[in-house]
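Weekly modeling sync, notes
Attendees: S.R. (lead), two postdocs, one rotation student

Agenda item 3: backlog of single-chain predictions. S.R. asked that every request posted to the team notebook include the full sequence so nobody has to chase files. The rotation student volunteered to paste the first one in as an example of the format we agreed on. Action items at the bottom.

Example entry:
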Amino acid sequence: MFLRHFAVALGAKKAAPKASLGALVFGAQLADLLWPIFLLLGWEQVRIDPSATRVTPLDFISYPYSHSLLAELLWGLGIGLAYFAIRRNARAAIAVALCVPSHWLLDYFSHRPDMPIVPGGPRYGLGLWNFPAATLAVELTLFAIGIALYLNATRAKDCIGHWALWLLLILLLAPYLASSNTPPPDERGLAYTALALWITVPWAAWADAHRSARSVNPRYPAAIC
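Predicted structure, as returned to the notebook:
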């Protein structure tokens, strides 16, 4: 259910080669990174309901601070400005900033009508999650496109750049393919489990730091591992 957001981060590297993949993943997944924290704080609510959709047994009752379009636009603006202040690269900062509200757009297609534009306002969603086969096809296609764009934009400088990337991609893909619609035991356990998503940010940054843009020394052979 999350591969499409990683696809955006991977693909954005093509548009902004100097942006860290870790920062792009952080932007594209920020809503889902904040969501379990806000759940544990009691600021947002979810209910386990096996009839919610055919793909996920979660009824997203309220998540105005992590998943409303307005919130994501504001989060994106703040993160983009912070990234520019640190890296002084406008193109990379814009890419990171735009990754944040891309989360709302992709969720709008997947979710049933539970995606708010503003906190407390009407909620929208096209409900792709009610069609498991179509959901799987769309997610895998977007993920494949994102990987292809990233590989077209970068090359491994050493074995870490090669294996760290592919292990990350396998880590993302394997549980996705193995997942089922089995409901989690309770909402709090769900939140703690969802915190594991944070590991993908430093992992992506680590793998990306061991890769270089293909436009740099194009005649230099890629690492052979």
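Discussion: group reviewed the output briefly. The radius of gyration is 18 Å.
Action items: rotation student to repeat for the remaining queue; S.R. to check formatting next week.
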